[in-house]
Amino acid sequence: MKLIVGLGNPGYLYSRNRHNIGFMCVSYLAKKHNIPFDRKQGHARTGIGNIGRYKAVVARPQTYMNASGESVNALLKRLNVKPSDLIVIHDDLDLPVGKIRLRLGGSSGGHKGIDSIIARIGTRDFYRIRVGIGRLDDSESSDAAKEKAVIDYVLSDFTSEEKKIIDEIIPQVSDAIGNLLAEGLTAAMNRYN
């Protein structure tokens, strides 16, 4: 079984925020494969179904971004899924809007949701699909001002121009997951990175 987690913050207030691209992508994936989010388990809204020949649980943690590891750890234990069968979709400030990068393992890149997952499950060895949300130019700010600017930026909604790009990229993330499951990481990276 595969566990596919989209990171974000629960609630209508955050639903269209840049930080919620993981929620948007996993919701699209679930709809495409007729998987309803009809369960509550492991501090998450979940659904179970098939993606290709794989049984999969899709999840949207309800613990808020910075505590995502609490939910992911609980789901891995409850479902008896290994971290090597975990795919996490999340936003990335260091990629231009709409760029996708697949990888296995590595650092969090400063992403607090990924930091939380690594800390709670005790390994970096899980799949990640990073979706670019771009970054504000904060080169002339102090460290404190930069941190506040980043928080304000990720918790703001996409602009209308960015939304057009995101609406095109979300189906590609779904296709990349299907390709990752069917053909493996190298093939998926070659096609989507």
Strand order of the largest sheet: 2-3-4-1-5-7-6
CATH architectural category:
3-Layer(aba) Sandwich
The gross shape turns out to be globular
Q: What do we call the CATH topology?
A: Rossmann fold
Give the overall average pLDDT: 95
Count of beta strands: 7
CATH superfamily: Peptidyl-tRNA hydrolase
What proportion of the residues is helical, as a percent range? 40-55%
Q: First CA to last CA: what distance?
A: 25 Å
Under the CATH scheme, which class? Alpha Beta
Low-confidence stretches: none
Structure description:
With 193 residues, the chain is an alpha/beta fold. It has a single domain (2-192), classed as Rossmann fold. 40% of the residues lie in helices and 22% in strands. It contains 6 helices and 7 strands. The protein has helices at 21-32, 68-79, 112-121, 143-154, 160-183, 185-192; strands at 2-6, 39-41, 44-51, 54-61, 86-92, 100-104, 127-132. Strands 2-3-4-1-5-7-6 form a 7-stranded mixed sheet, sandwiched between helices. Helix 1 crosses helix 5 (160-183). The longest helix has 24 residues, at 160-183. The protein starts with a strand and ends with a helix.
